[in-house]
Design goal:
The chain has 233 residues and is of the alpha+beta class. The chain has 7 helices and 12 strands. The chain has 2 domains: 57 residues, Leucyl/phenylalanyl-tRNA-protein transferase, N-terminal domain (Alpha-Beta Plaits); 167 residues, Leucyl/phenylalanyl-tRNA-protein transferase, C-terminal domain (Aminopeptidase, 3-Layer(aba) Sandwich). Functions in the N-end rule pathway of protein degradation where it conjugates Leu, Phe and, less efficiently, Met from aminoacyl-tRNAs to the N-termini of proteins containing an N-terminal arginine or lysine.
Amino acid sequence: MIPWLGHELVFPPVRSALAEPDGLLAAGGDLSPARLLLGYSQGIFPWFSAGEPILWWSPSQRMVLFPPQLRVSRSLDKTLRNRHYRVTLDTAFRQVMEACAAPRAGAAGTWIIQPMVEAYCRLHQIGAAHSFEVWMDGELVGGLYGVALGRMFYGESMFSRRTDASKIAFVHMARHLQAQGVEMIDCQMHTPHLASLGATLIPRAEFIATLKNKTLEPQADSMWNYCFDHEPS
């Protein structure tokens, strides 16, 4: 059995998370900004589907990107150099979330249900959630969003409507945040897509120890100012 959360803003210790399913820690509670930020500060995030209670997770292995380990393949580097695109930050947060929530080929459904969209838009309104957007020909074609605490960034989801558009967003996000002093970006769960970009799995204890320091560090004034227009040479 896992604990059921009530109104009190508290989570069980992450060491009590289940081994199967890996990382399931608690259920219930709410998606208020205060609870979400408390969860992220402790390495806990919500992940559930429509019709389920809110489920809170802290997996035993955490997928993270250390920005210096960002991997850009030859084909992606060619795209970055030869495509005309624009990257912005925090100009279309809700649009990015809704695009991430849209049905995908081969997927049974989405965990980014409407309550999650509204919850993270509230975080965005208070400056705790951010989006990177990729535009081509004036159209939003890719992007990602996540939560920021201090100098920790917790990536949530990404989408792509044109080839490599989400990867363009990911590369610009990683390089910009590295320049702002972010040393680790949470990617949550392992996927081949993230692994191809240089993300790797680390033990939960190592992840928690690192984020405890990083969430307390002040953000640089320029952390959420970014715009990049690329014209092919």
